[in-house]
Sequence to fold (366 residues):
Amino acid sequence: MKNREEGREEVMIKAGIIGATGYAGAELVRLLLGHKEVEISWYGSKSYVDQKFADIYRNMFTLVEDRCLEDRLPEMAEQVDVIFTATPQGYLASVLTEEILSKVKVIDLSADYRIKDVATYEKWYGIEHKSPQLIEEAVYGLCEINRSKVKGARLIANPGCYTTCSILTAYPLVKEGLIDPNTLIVDAKSGTSGAGRGAKVANLFCEVNENMKAYGVTTHRHTPEIEEQLGYAAGEEITINFTPHLVPMNRGILATEYASLKKVTYPDGRVDYPDEKMIREAYQKYYDKEQFVRVLDAGVCPETKWVEGSNYVDVNFVIDDRTHRVVMMGALDNLVKGAAGQAVQNMNLLFGFDEAEGLRLVPMFP
Fold:
């Protein structure tokens, strides 16, 4: 919308991507190419400056003619309306300024502005935060929960894949007080694209294939993010267990979550644990009108293959009457709803577009 021509009613907004050649950045390119209101003006890449984007990702042959440019944030801010930063932790915090935010909206796919407490961020990520003065105004971009806040923001902290799945899967039951959030255990699995495109021995085919492993046990840096957001829902600080696992597939997050049910008072006055009807009504209360959260029918467990390539999150639950616990399940595509798709959803809210524009993606199968 910069340099709008007089008399022209409709002008596509211009987008710039820093980190366009990583997996999340490339997924942003794929989604934005199908967005009728946006054109990509800047393909930023530290590793591939002056190389054609389509030479790096051959699926873009004849679709993208642009070459990759350096990550020059101040210059980019003068030329585009929105900047997506699909970069390692610490990058944006080290370069973002009030002057840049006065000119352009920023959607950050890293964790730099997700956690409100600077000390917590620095402890879990092991780096110093370079722009803590901007943390307070950043909006946590989980659209289904913070939609109204997103619409008026300049800086969006786009949630991560594990966190999006973990939070949305448990949110209705935490918000309604049907579970004890301090008993919450999140057991989550991720495809290898969640680790990024960088060359790492642990991600080699021979290391990953025919294997499954836990990592970051009790120390994974998404833990405080999940605790903070579900803590807002609970109205108190909470502590959870979160254990991620790497599985041999390209895409997908599957979260299986366990928590103790809390006794409630029924309309007839009896006090007992929530039943299936009450739990299902809680999910329907928060998600019935959501385009991208699908509450599955009773007895159907979420599967990563039924959300692959889409912006959907599938959720469901099973009550264990024997232990008075509930098992909650969620599945999403880590590169779409867990990263780029969610970023586009946030962009749509920021600019007043149809929230589903560019995201009406039917899940791929097989």
